[in-house]
Write a structure and sequence with these properties.
Big_13; 5% helix; five-stranded mixed beta sheet; mainly beta; Ig-like domain-containing protein; Immunoglobulin-like; Ig-like_ice
Length: 259
């Protein structure tokens, strides 16, 4: 039977009696020993971040179109959810956000199962990772710019360092910074630190005034973090301080009487 192809199979029986008279009959039957089921990528990357955990989690996949109307059961942490296979073989269901919120961060196994009309069954495991707990969300801190939040004419003659720290952000993640509409990037190191510089040419294009250095980063799960720090530029000659000394006497000569 294992050598038979899937689908309709015809069987023919022939016989003859002792006189040599022939007789034959035929019948057909279906061979159906296979059932297919797949589970698609969940949330785009199989990682559920805080924003995604705040909405119902969609789980979907495919089965054979011939199994249209059959029940697909998805089980997560002992709770089962069901849906039916559509006419094109696709299936989809949503796991309520309240059920996701009840789970701690970490990896989980989704189990999807299906039985076809012939009694064939299939079970498929699919791993997802939850990264949504407040204690594990990323943080980002921008260090005071130029040390004190002010950039003077002398400091503007050298590249300006923008740096800071992060927590719960994986090494290699990119920090995106913006100053005066120009974007810069830095890479998070193994300790969560990051740093980049603003070229002198860019500083020369910034007029004196108040600015904000904004920074954003996301962890591998897509959870975002941001921070900003003020920066005041005082570099233009018209803004620089001046100092003068009034004449000590009318002629800047101190006589004996004046002394």
């Amino acid at each position: 039977m294992q050598a038979l192809s899937q689908g309709s199979v015809t069987i023919v029986v022939k016989a003859q009696d002792i006189a040599g008279n022939p007789a034959s009959t035929s019948d057909s039957f279906m061979v159906d020993t296979l059932v297919n089921l797949t589970v698609g990528v969940v949330a785009g990357d199989d990682i559920i971040n805080a924003a995604e955990a705040g909405a119902p989690m969609v789980v979907s996949g495919t089965a054979d179109a011939a199994d249209s109307g059959r029940i697909v059961t998805v089980t997560l942490e002992g709770t089962s959810y069901t849906t039916t296979v559509q006419s094109d073989g696709n299936w989809s269901l949503s796991i309520p956000s309240v059920d996701i919120a009840a789970l701690a961060d970490g990896p989980y196994t989704l189990n999807a199962s299906l039985s076809d009309a012939a009694g064939n069954s299939i079970s498929v495991d699919h791993t997802i990772t939850l990264s949504a707990g407040a204690a594990n969300l990323p943080t980002l801190t921008v260090s005071p710019v130029s040390g004190d939040g002010y950039l003077n004419a002398s400091e503007a003659g050298s590249p300006l360092t923008l740096s800071g720290t992060s927590t719960h952000v994986e090494e290699g993640q990119m920090v995106i910074l913006t100053l005066n509409g120009v974007t810069y990037s830095a890479t998070v190191d193994a300790s969560g630190n990051w740093s980049t510089t603003v070229p002198v040419a860019d500083l020369n294009n910034i007029t004196d005034g108040d600015y904000q250095v904004t920074a954003t980063v996301s962890d591998a799960a897509g959870n975002p973090a941001s921070d900003s720090k003020p920066l005041v530029l005082i570099t233009d000659s018209a803004s620089l301080p001046t100092l003068s000394v009034d004449p000590v006497t009318a002629d800047d000569i101190v006589s004996a009487n004046e002394s």
